[in-house]
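Deliverable D4.2, example record:
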Amino acid sequence: MRPLMPTFAVVALVLAGVAEAGDISGQWARGDGNARVQIAPCGSDICAVNTWIKPGTPKEKEGDKLVMSIKQDAEGRYSGTAFDPQRDMSYRLTVTVSGNKMTTKGCVVAGLLCKGVDWTRVN
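Output generated by the structure prediction step:
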Protein backbone atom coordinates (compact mmCIF):
# COMPACT_ATOMS: atom_id res chain seq x y z
CA MET A 1 0.00 0.00 0.00
CA ARG A 2 1.32 3.45 -0.94
CA PRO A 3 1.64 6.01 1.84
CA LEU A 4 -1.02 8.75 1.73
CA MET A 5 1.08 11.59 3.08
CA PRO A 6 2.93 12.43 -0.16
CA THR A 7 -0.39 12.58 -2.03
CA PHE A 8 -1.82 15.02 0.52
CA ALA A 9 1.36 17.10 0.30
CA VAL A 10 1.05 17.30 -3.50
CA VAL A 11 -2.63 18.29 -3.27
CA ALA A 12 -1.81 20.96 -0.69
CA LEU A 13 0.93 22.40 -2.91
CA VAL A 14 -1.37 22.43 -5.94
CA LEU A 15 -4.15 24.16 -3.97
CA ALA A 16 -1.68 26.70 -2.60
CA GLY A 17 -0.54 27.43 -6.16
CA VAL A 18 -4.14 27.92 -7.30
CA ALA A 19 -4.82 30.35 -4.46
CA GLU A 20 -1.65 32.29 -5.28
CA ALA A 21 -2.43 32.28 -9.01
CA GLY A 22 -5.60 34.31 -8.46
CA ASP A 23 -4.15 36.79 -5.98
CA ILE A 24 -4.50 40.31 -7.37
CA SER A 25 -2.72 42.08 -4.48
CA GLY A 26 0.84 43.27 -4.93
CA GLN A 27 3.11 45.35 -7.14
CA TRP A 28 2.54 45.07 -10.92
CA ALA A 29 4.47 46.43 -13.92
CA ARG A 30 2.50 47.35 -17.03
CA GLY A 31 3.49 45.47 -20.18
CA ASP A 32 4.58 48.61 -22.05
CA GLY A 33 7.07 49.41 -19.25
CA ASN A 34 5.55 52.85 -18.60
CA ALA A 35 3.94 52.27 -15.20
CA ARG A 36 3.89 50.28 -11.98
CA VAL A 37 0.94 49.98 -9.62
CA GLN A 38 0.35 48.71 -6.11
CA ILE A 39 -2.93 46.78 -5.82
CA ALA A 40 -4.40 46.38 -2.32
CA PRO A 41 -7.70 46.48 -0.48
CA CYS A 42 -9.08 49.96 0.24
CA GLY A 43 -12.20 49.77 2.36
CA SER A 44 -14.65 47.35 0.75
CA ASP A 45 -13.03 47.87 -2.69
CA ILE A 46 -9.63 47.18 -4.24
CA CYS A 47 -7.40 50.07 -5.32
CA ALA A 48 -4.61 50.24 -7.87
CA VAL A 49 -2.30 53.18 -7.16
CA ASN A 50 0.43 54.31 -9.54
CA THR A 51 3.75 53.94 -7.71
CA TRP A 52 6.00 54.76 -10.67
CA ILE A 53 5.40 56.40 -14.06
CA LYS A 54 8.05 56.54 -16.77
CA PRO A 55 9.11 60.17 -17.25
CA GLY A 56 7.36 61.76 -20.21
CA THR A 57 4.32 59.48 -20.03
CA PRO A 58 1.35 61.78 -20.76
CA LYS A 59 -1.81 61.96 -18.65
CA GLU A 60 -0.49 59.78 -15.81
CA LYS A 61 1.29 60.52 -12.57
CA GLU A 62 2.41 58.81 -9.39
CA GLY A 63 -0.40 58.57 -6.87
CA ASP A 64 -3.22 58.30 -9.44
CA LYS A 65 -5.73 55.75 -8.18
CA LEU A 66 -8.24 53.37 -9.77
CA VAL A 67 -10.97 52.19 -7.37
CA MET A 68 -12.23 48.72 -8.33
CA SER A 69 -15.49 47.18 -7.12
CA ILE A 70 -14.73 43.66 -8.32
CA LYS A 71 -15.38 40.12 -7.14
CA GLN A 72 -13.50 36.93 -7.92
CA ASP A 73 -15.45 34.10 -9.60
CA ALA A 74 -14.91 30.32 -9.40
CA GLU A 75 -12.43 30.40 -12.32
CA GLY A 76 -10.29 33.01 -10.58
CA ARG A 77 -11.30 35.96 -12.80
CA TYR A 78 -12.32 39.24 -11.22
CA SER A 79 -15.12 41.30 -12.71
CA GLY A 80 -17.15 44.36 -11.84
CA THR A 81 -16.62 48.08 -12.22
CA ALA A 82 -13.77 50.52 -11.80
CA PHE A 83 -13.81 54.26 -11.16
CA ASP A 84 -11.00 56.57 -12.21
CA PRO A 85 -11.39 59.73 -10.05
CA GLN A 86 -8.67 61.62 -11.99
CA ARG A 87 -10.72 61.39 -15.20
CA ASP A 88 -14.17 61.04 -13.57
CA MET A 89 -14.81 57.88 -15.63
CA SER A 90 -16.30 54.49 -14.80
CA TYR A 91 -15.48 51.26 -16.60
CA ARG A 92 -16.68 47.67 -16.75
CA LEU A 93 -13.62 45.70 -15.74
CA THR A 94 -12.38 42.12 -15.94
CA VAL A 95 -9.07 41.00 -14.48
CA THR A 96 -7.44 37.61 -15.05
CA VAL A 97 -4.47 36.60 -12.89
CA SER A 98 -2.35 33.56 -13.70
CA GLY A 99 0.75 33.20 -11.54
CA ASN A 100 2.87 36.31 -12.10
CA LYS A 101 0.87 37.51 -15.12
CA MET A 102 -2.27 39.64 -15.09
CA THR A 103 -4.50 40.92 -17.88
CA THR A 104 -6.96 43.76 -17.34
CA LYS A 105 -9.74 44.66 -19.75
CA GLY A 106 -11.71 47.87 -19.29
CA CYS A 107 -14.78 48.81 -21.34
CA VAL A 108 -16.80 52.02 -21.71
CA VAL A 109 -19.84 53.04 -23.77
CA ALA A 110 -21.90 49.94 -22.87
CA GLY A 111 -18.97 47.65 -23.65
CA LEU A 112 -18.42 48.95 -27.18
CA LEU A 113 -14.96 50.41 -26.54
CA CYS A 114 -12.58 48.08 -24.71
CA LYS A 115 -8.86 48.01 -24.04
CA GLY A 116 -6.76 45.20 -22.63
CA VAL A 117 -3.46 45.63 -20.78
CA ASP A 118 -0.93 42.96 -19.74
CA TRP A 119 0.94 43.19 -16.43
CA THR A 120 3.78 41.28 -14.71
CA ARG A 121 4.09 40.88 -10.94
CA VAL A 122 7.10 42.72 -9.48
CA ASN A 123 8.78 41.02 -6.51
